[in-house]
Amino acid sequence: MATGRDVAQLAGTSTAVVSYVFNNGPRNVSDETRAKVLAAAEKLNYRPNALARALSFGRTASVGLIVPDIANPFFGELARALEDAAIARGDLLLIGDSALDEDREAQIISAFVDRRVDSVVMVSIREHPDFSAFTQAGIPVVALHPVDRGSAASSITIDYEEAARAAAEHLVSHGYDSIALLNGPYDSVGAGQHRRGFAAAVDRAGTPIRTIEVNSATSRADAAARALDWLARPDRPRAVTCATDEQAYGVLHAAHRLGLRVPHDLAVMGFDGTGHSAFAVPALSTVRQPIPRIAERAVGLLAEADGDPVHEVLGYELELRESCGCGDRGE
């Protein structure tokens, strides 16, 4: 692999001049000398050390993303949207998958600090994440879930409690007299908001509704395993609202295995609004999060970060399809 010294030798100049050409300074280089350096670099297929160049300017042009499970389509769509937004600003997105493990999340945080990423977008698996390592390193963070107001991290999120209430209220509007909440792990991020929103919808119903909360990991497999148990019971609920689309897909699988027709025997509501939800069988009703807008604002906030944390709450939409009983057009 060619080095800067090789380019300098072929161009008949010094390695310092080669550096000035590729770093656009700090000293000026004549047009004639610049042309010689670029011609030599092209002939030798020379590629400057991007990391060294970036560090010389005090930044690495990289954004770190920490997610709980990159196999989850929601986080896959989020990563794609964040990468698009980062590339538009000339940055590279580095992805760390905590695999729903707190120790691994801590390892990724340390790795991002060691690699001197410029900023971080984080979806923690902890109710109260520890951002201290980033704070001490001077790395700005945007969390894509609610955080403590005294936190050093900014946040961009929808109102999970309000969205969960709207989803449950829609099921109530169908007249279902028993509704289950399939929530994430009891103390996981967002579980409390989903729980409170669900309870508020039931309280406003005006008629008695039998309820149950079931907790599972936010995966299709675990949700299906749990659903196969309680949906097989005689007192199974008439409808289920889920904390994620992934869990809703698990419920659809369990219903199929048990011979339950959706929505005739069991209505199902998801949460996240991934592109996959429209192609479930039947099509999944869900709460759609504005993933492109979340990504755009997250990268924008990180680029502008220069002071106190910023906390923004974005809107959401109910996508009403067949699984809740609405039909193809949400009617």
Characterize this entry briefly:
The chain has 331 residues and is α/β, with parallel strands linked by helices. Helices cover 42% and strands 16% of the residues. The protein folds into three domains: 45 residues, lambda repressor-like DNA-binding domains (434 Repressor (Amino-terminal Domain)); 122 residues, Rossmann fold, CATH 3.40.50.2300; 137 residues, Response regulator (Rossmann fold, 3-Layer(aba) Sandwich).
Describe the structure in your own words:
This protein is α/β, with parallel strands linked by helices and 331 residues long. The chain has three domains: 4-48, lambda repressor-like DNA-binding domains (434 Repressor (Amino-terminal Domain), Orthogonal Bundle); 62-158 and 292-316, Rossmann fold; 160-290 and 319-324, Rossmann fold (3-Layer(aba) Sandwich), CATH 3.40.50. It is built from twelve helices and twelve strands. It has helices at 4-11, 15-23, 31-44, 50-56, 73-88, 102-114, 132-137, 160-173, 191-203, 220-230, 245-257, 291-304, and strands at residues 62-67, 92-97, 119-122, 141-143, 154-158, 178-183, 210-215, 239-242, 267-269, 286-288, 311-314, 317-319. The strands form three sheets. Strands 2-1-3-4-5-11 form a six-stranded parallel sheet. The radius of gyration is 25 Å and the shape is elongated. The N and C termini lie far apart (63 Å). The mean pLDDT is 89. It comes from Agromyces binzhouensis. One of its GO terms (molecular function) is transcription cis-regulatory region binding. This is LacI family transcriptional regulator. Residues 2-57 form the HTH lacI-type domain. InterPro entries: HTH_LacI, LacI/GalR-like_sensor, Lambda_DNA-bd_dom_sf, Peripla_BP_I.
